[in-house]
């Protein structure tokens, strides 16, 4: 499998490179982690890293200048052959896919961008719940957890730390886990 992926990545055809990426995504979806690690280990390490000099220069002009002794001409020494640079970039993408990092990032990005939860609902529930009613307190925490599952949004929890600290026993564990 690794040799087939390598052949597809080395090809000059964009379709072959896209096929290699699709195969990598299919492997991640259907195979065991040990097999994926084995395929990733059998792929060679990129000999050159993709050149990002143009993006680095654009970032430097807009913000702070990094404190390095290198000049921009020294950072382009890694690129020797355009075909090798393209291959290295493709190989890096396939290794990221096989490690699962790309899938996780894409899933997180999708969930975060499609999060349509309304924090006003949670605030209204919190204000209408009695302080001593642990069942309603837990229900509000669970509602927040379900509304923001997988999105990394923790605004409600951070804004209401004092309210969350009033939880005891199982409710405290649930609030922390949410």
TrEMBL record:
GO terms for cellular component: nucleus; proteasome regulatory particle, base subcomplex; proteasome storage granule. InterPro entries: ARM-like (IPR011989), PSMD1_RPN2_N (IPR048570). Residues 3-115 form the 26S proteasome non-ATPase regulatory subunit 1/RPN2 N-terminal domain. Keywords: Proteasome, Repeat. One of its GO terms (biological process) is proteasome-mediated ubiquitin-dependent protein catabolic process. It comes from the Eukaryota. The keyword Repeat applies. Residues 45-81 are annotated as: Disordered. This is 26S proteasome non-ATPase regulatory subunit 1-like protein B.
């Amino acid at each position: 499998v690794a040799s087939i992926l390598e052949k597809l990545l080395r090809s000059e055809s964009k379709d072959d490179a896209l096929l290699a990426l699709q195969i990598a995504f299919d492997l991640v979806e259907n195979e065991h982690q040990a097999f994926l690690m084995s395929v990733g280990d059998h792929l060679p390490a990129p000999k050159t890293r993709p050149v990002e000099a143009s993006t680095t220069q654009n970032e430097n002009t807009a913000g702070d200048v990094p404190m390095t002794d290198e000049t921009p001409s020294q950072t382009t020494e890694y690129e020797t052959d355009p075909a090798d640079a393209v291959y290295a970039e493709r190989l890096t993408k396939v290794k990221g896919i096989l490690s699962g990092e790309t899938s996780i990032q894409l899933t997180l990005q999708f969930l975060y961008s499609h999060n349509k939860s309304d924090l006003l609902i949670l605030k209204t529930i919190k204000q209408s719940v009695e302080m001593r009613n642990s069942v309603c307190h837990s229900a509000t925490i669970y509602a927040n957890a379900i509304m923001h599952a997988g999105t990394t949004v923790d605004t409600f929890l951070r804004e209401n730390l004092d309210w969350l600290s009033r939880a005891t026993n199982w409710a405290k564990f649930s609030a922390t886990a949410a």
